[in-house]
Amino acid sequence: MRRRSIAVLAGLAVAASALAGCGGGDGGAGDAQSIEIWTMGDKAKQMTEIAAAFTADTKIEIKVQSIPWKNARDKMSAAIASGNGPDIVQVGHSFLAEFADAGALLDLSGKLSAYPELDGAKFFPASAETMKVGGATVSVPWIADTRVLFYRTDVLQQAGVSKAPATWDELTAAATTLAARGGGNFGIGLNTDDQFLPLILTWSAGGDVVNGDQVSFDTEQFKSAVAYEQSFFSAGLTPKKAQPDADMVQGFKTGKIPMFVSGPYMATLLNNQAPELAGKWAVAAIPAKSSATSVMAGSNLAIFSKSKKVDQSLKFMSYLAQKQTQESWFKATNDLPARQDALQGLVAGGDANLAVYYEQMRNAKIVPQLKAWGAIAPEMVRALQKVCVSGASVDTTVPAFAAKARELSAK
Amino acid sequence: MRKLSRHRGALIFVGPSVLLLLVFMVVPILVAAGASLTDLDLRGLADPSSVEFIGLENYRRLLSDELFGKAAVNTLLYVVIGVPLIVVCSLAVALLLNMGSSRLFRGLRAFYFLPAITNIVAVAVIWGYLYNTDSGLLNYLLSLGGVEPVPWLDQPFVAKLSLILVGVWKGAGFNMIIFLAALQGIPREYYEAAAIDGVTPWQRLTRITIPLLRYATFFVTVTTTIAWIQFFEEPFVMTDGGPLDGTMSVALFIYQNGFNLSDFGYASAASVLLFLAIMIVTAVQFRLRRSDVEY
């Protein structure tokens, strides 16, 4: 329990912004030959290492600050309010539209032609789509992420499922067979907290959730996606609760949850926390109803609108976009490159999982680039939870959510 | 003016804290009240000229917001269940610990106080493990007794109770110290007189100790009520308001709208309502106290 008032906190944030509004420019880095970059997550060490070659080459020093994902938003809000921010900032796809709308990201239109490495054609098409917000180019792709189906090859084999399910019907059948093992075993782990899953299912049913710049959840495809997700819960094929990654790893280890949908970062987690499973699991493309479309997530790099070192920043971003840098970044962190030929080069190394990611990323769509998406996504998750966990009817829940989403996007 | 100079000594002592209070409490509350009448968002922070005055629109939205209603009901439940639990638990522990002053009792005192000074994130992580439905210690212990696994954090109502349990565990230690101090302030003469009259231990407790703890009880009740109305950290780190918004509190609602959705105006409106609720509840408590008998 906190004894301080939240009202006070909220008020302070606003007051601080008013007071700090006169700051402007980047406060920290004094000399012209250094730029500051904010990376999200805990990869400051790797970023510093990878920047060493750049510094040696150009004499531009790179100051790295890593910000935990959970604080990314607060930090950026404070930076926007005070005008005191880094030169380069890593922005997750889902934040791009909102930060761009707030004027936090420098408009790079017309500036990129001098940097061939930052050409959109170098990246996966879906990743390249995220460069533009409302007609202006505000960021360049950095790392990519997608969702695929993870499965235990040995467990599926034992249960008589000879290959990874490739269609909705096959997935249901496989999950039913696996759950029939009994003894508290499930068929698949579907996380009701995941905002990507309903999107992926809608896309693989051949639909979409936006129409131009309008959200449209009132479609047959979205309904069928929700109903399909619900079917796993009502048949008891998946645990009826939000599952953090740790639970997924644990369930995967014991075979209780032999399949789940997640991103490449889960592969890293499995390698670290369940090394004894090596060789007993694989990934496959998202099962299709009409197409095997997944989500293209990841983060981009953008220049903070108040930065005074635009040229140096672009130079560094161009360095980071080089094929070789992208490959070494993957080797250092397991983050997949957003640059298409870099991942292609890595696939040539013979890793079957990487080949799946590569194919999946070529068949992927991006999260709707709407300012209101940040408010719509939690409502979507809420609607899904109502349907999946408490068994609410799809026919009444979806229209109610669709109306709410329209209202939020109109704001 | 002359009056002012006469109180100079007092002003020197009181001034700084009044100033701090003004800058860090009163001004932010006023700012929040002002912001609650606008559509302030992320863009508004960068460019104040884009902020629009929208009157009471945020309040109208709040009253028709299903989630806010849910958060208000949950918060009410937190208060109604949590406050009596903390008062009773901390009083009981204090009475037991007051029975002796040996090294054992001093050790126990520290033991009960530890949760109050433990970092909430560490607390949340550990309790998260204890509460884990499939592999948690609590369900393991229950399974030894042949009890079915309890969905500690997976079912909306049970999750609420689970969080209250953590809140009580964490809050009882602090209030226990207050009760202990009050207990030790009760003059021994009362007990000696009672012993001469030959009262039973039960009478001693109900006729002397508890009535004399009235002021401490009042203090603990008021501060605990305020704390539960602002119940935030446990749901924030353990459940994020889920499952199915079953643990969403008003404070968490404010945080999510303000800092996750950047809807600062809306969050400010909710925080103003929360502030008013605290003022009213506290005022009622003081009112009820006024009719109290003084010893």
TrEMBL record, chain A:
<keyword id="KW-0564">Palmitate</keyword>
<feature type="signal peptide">
    <location>
        <begin position="1"/>
        <end position="20"/>
    </location>
</feature>
<keyword id="KW-0449">Lipoprotein</keyword>
<keyword id="KW-0472">Membrane</keyword>
<keyword id="KW-0732">Signal</keyword>
<keyword id="KW-1003">Cell membrane</keyword>
<dbReference type="Pfam" id="PF01547">
    <property type="entry name" value="SBP_bac_1"/>
</dbReference>
<dbReference type="InterPro" id="IPR050490">
    <property type="entry name" value="Bact_solute-bd_prot1"/>
</dbReference>
<dbReference type="InterPro" id="IPR006059">
    <property type="entry name" value="SBP"/>
</dbReference>
<protein>
    <submittedName>
        <fullName>Extracellular solute-binding protein</fullName>
    </submittedName>
</protein>
TrEMBL record, chain B:
<feature type="transmembrane region" description="Helical">
    <location>
        <begin position="212"/>
        <end position="231"/>
    </location>
</feature>
<dbReference type="InterPro" id="IPR035906">
    <property type="entry name" value="MetI-like_sf"/>
</dbReference>
<dbReference type="InterPro" id="IPR051393">
    <property type="entry name" value="ABC_transporter_permease"/>
</dbReference>
<dbReference type="InterPro" id="IPR000515">
    <property type="entry name" value="MetI-like"/>
</dbReference>
<dbReference type="Pfam" id="PF00528">
    <property type="entry name" value="BPD_transp_1"/>
</dbReference>
<feature type="transmembrane region" description="Helical">
    <location>
        <begin position="12"/>
        <end position="35"/>
    </location>
</feature>
<keyword id="KW-0812">Transmembrane</keyword>
<keyword id="KW-1003">Cell membrane</keyword>
<feature type="transmembrane region" description="Helical">
    <location>
        <begin position="161"/>
        <end position="183"/>
    </location>
</feature>
<protein>
    <submittedName>
        <fullName>Carbohydrate ABC transporter permease</fullName>
    </submittedName>
</protein>
<feature type="transmembrane region" description="Helical">
    <location>
        <begin position="76"/>
        <end position="98"/>
    </location>
</feature>
<comment type="similarity">
    <text>Belongs to the binding-protein-dependent transport system permease family.</text>
</comment>
<feature type="transmembrane region" description="Helical">
    <location>
        <begin position="264"/>
        <end position="286"/>
    </location>
</feature>
<feature type="transmembrane region" description="Helical">
    <location>
        <begin position="110"/>
        <end position="130"/>
    </location>
</feature>
<keyword id="KW-1133">Transmembrane helix</keyword>
<keyword id="KW-0813">Transport</keyword>
<keyword id="KW-0472">Membrane</keyword>
<feature type="domain" description="ABC transmembrane type-1">
    <location>
        <begin position="72"/>
        <end position="285"/>
    </location>
</feature>
